[in-house]
Write a structure and sequence with these properties.
By secondary structure, this protein is α/β, with parallel strands linked by helices. About 30% of the residues lie in helices and about 15% in strands. The chain is built from eleven helices and 13 strands. Strand 3, helix 2 and strand 4 (about 75-80) form a beta-alpha-beta unit. Helix 8 crosses helix 9 (about 210-225).
């Protein structure tokens, strides 16, 4: 099957669900509130669209992926790839992926266990299925991408049509790595990784300044054609902060402020808060309006539907600090533009 990074959605009402991150119980609760049957069928002909990051960190990533795969095979669901699925496909063993990678089990256990691990016999089939999922789903009235709508990436992706996703991702990665290896700071980057990469995963104290690593992350976020769509472009941070399992020197950039097209874009990825609080992770501070139903961007036609259910492990591990109501799994009903969450909230977006 020829890989197509852009695919078309059917002309039906949609329920667009934010990052699930292995929270299978929250997903089942939300689907019930939306009126879906156990297999993903909706009596009114609605279809589900997932904006990526189905897996990692939560208690049952295999169950989430299996459910979405089966619902898709029946024609009830669609999904775009998020950065966490791409990490699995690329063999990039990032924070929270111990459910899939044996080498991450010990590192991840302290934060995320207990969790269900993927059966070895199921991994090849799962990878094959993920490798067929698009980066973009669209139709005339709406677009979905995991992190950022960036037309400047499309020329390279169009030129690669017919190339498999994993091969394309790796080729872009190799080309960019060769380019970065010529940078004046690249030797410093290698030294930082050798000396401080392990220390950078310790949330209790920051490592020494890793300026070359920040420059490396900055360039990779902007110049890898697939990673830009699924992780978003970044900018240099004023100071290091801990997020996503390590200390970082770059922060997410609100690309939607430059989006001038008329078609609305729905995204996930950005850990939006339903109720802003001092316990919010650093990566989301000041990125969004305080109102959970607010649209974003120059034309107010970009909406982030990720309300941080991926941080729900914090409730289980630190109940004295994090309350269950802080993190929600949400769906944006389209074309109604109404938010529904697993906690039972129903909110008309602004």
């Amino acid at each position: 099957m020829t890989y197509r990074y852009r695919q078309t959605l059917p002309d039906t009402p949609l329920d667009i669900i934010g990052d699930v991150h292995g929270e299978f119980a929250a997903l089942q609760t939300l689907l019930s509130r939306l009126g879906y049957r156990d297999d993903g069928f909706h009596p009114e002909g609605r279809r589900l669209v997932f904006v990526g990051d189905l897996c990692d960190r939560g208690p049952d990533s295999p169950a989430v992926l299996s459910w979405v795969k089966q619902a898709q095979e029946k024609g009830y669901a669609y999904a775009v790839l998020g950065n966490h699925e791409l990490n699995i496909l690329a063999g990039d063993k990032k924070d929270g992926s111990g459910w899939f990678f044996d080498s991450r089990v010990q590192k991840d256990a302290a934060q995320y266990a207990p969790w269900q691990r993927a059966a070895e016999a199921d991994k090849a089939d799962l990878l094959h299925w993920l490798a067929q999922q698009p980066l973009i789903l669209e139709r005339a009235d709406v677009r979905m991408v995991h992190a950022a709508w960036l037309p400047h990436t499309f020329a390279a992706l169009n030129a690669a049509q017919g190339e498999g996703l994993v091969a394309m991702y790796q080729r872009f990665d190799d080309e960019l790595t060769r380019e970065l290896q010529t940078a004046s700071w690249y030797v410093d980057y290698l030294n930082e990784q050798k000396q401080y990469a392990a220390a950078a995963e310790d949330p209790t104290r920051p490592p020494p300044p890793m300026r070359a690593t920040a420059q490396y992350d900055f360039q990779r976020s902007r110049n890898h054609h697939i990673r830009a769509l699924t992780s978003g472009v970044e900018e240099m941070a004023a100071e290091a902060f801990y997020a996503g399992g390590r200390w970082r020197g770059t922060q997410r950039c609100p690309w939607w402020n430059q989006y001038q097209e008329d078609v609305p874009v729905i995204i996930g990825h950005y850990w939006r808060a339903w109720q802003p609080s001092p316990a919010m992770i650093a990566a989301e501070r000041n990125l969004f309006p305080k109102q959970p139903g607010a649209w974003l961007g120059a034309k107010k036609n970009v909406f982030c539907v990720d309300f941080s259910i991926g941080a729900n492990w914090r409730v289980r591990k630190y109940p004295e600090k994090y309350r269950p109501e802080m993190f929600r799994l949400a769906a944006l009903r389209w074309p109604e533009k109404v938010l529904v969450t697993d906690k039972g909230d129903v909110l008309v977006t602004e």
